[in-house]
Amino acid sequence: MQLNFSSLDSFDHVISPFEEMAAYEALWSENGATFRSIADRFRKYPDTIPSRMVTENVRKEFKEILKDIFDRFQVKHFGIRIHGANEYPEKLRDAKHPIEVFYYQGWWDLINTRSVAVVGSRRVSEEGKKRTRKLVKCLIEDNFTIVSGLAEGVDTEAHRTALDAGGNTIAVIGTPLSHFLSKTEY
């Protein structure tokens, strides 16, 4: 699916990644926002983009909020993928309540590498850590990219082991930028 631009009469409607990010964050800030409620809104209007679902004033407000977050966490470079636009991974549409927008930092081409998700308990035993390290080392030797969250426990152990072994990792954070992780989870 591609975005429908047939109703646009000028280039005044060029997609701005930062504006779409701000609009998507605004949608998430609405009272009662859930994966389902946001996915339902986009199902109702399948050819739209986030900036068309919030007012200009709200977008401006959230652009300022994002600038503050980027400054605070020293975010210099980021990427954004919008459903219906180029390079959006269509496999994400398989989710029960698919996301319309996601952000990333780092090397985008990792998305095209062979990968394995390694996830588990936050309160992992020493034996669990040992098994995680062994598994991840084997996967890295076979040129797999490790995909995991950033929670304490197995997720963190998987990333550390992969990086220590010279491998690649993709860290998945399932929250909007306005929701912060604990200090041990970033």
UniProtKB/TrEMBL annotation:
The family this protein is said to belong to: Belongs to the DprA/Smf family.
Domain Smf/DprA SLOG: 82-183
Species in which this protein is naturally found: Arsenophonus nasoniae (son-killer infecting Nasonia vitripennis)
GO annotation, biological process: DNA-mediated transformation
One of the Pfam families matching this protein, by short name: DNA_processg_A
Taxonomic placement: Bacteria, Pseudomonadati, Pseudomonadota, Gammaproteobacteria, Enterobacterales
Record's protein name: DNA recombination-mediator protein A
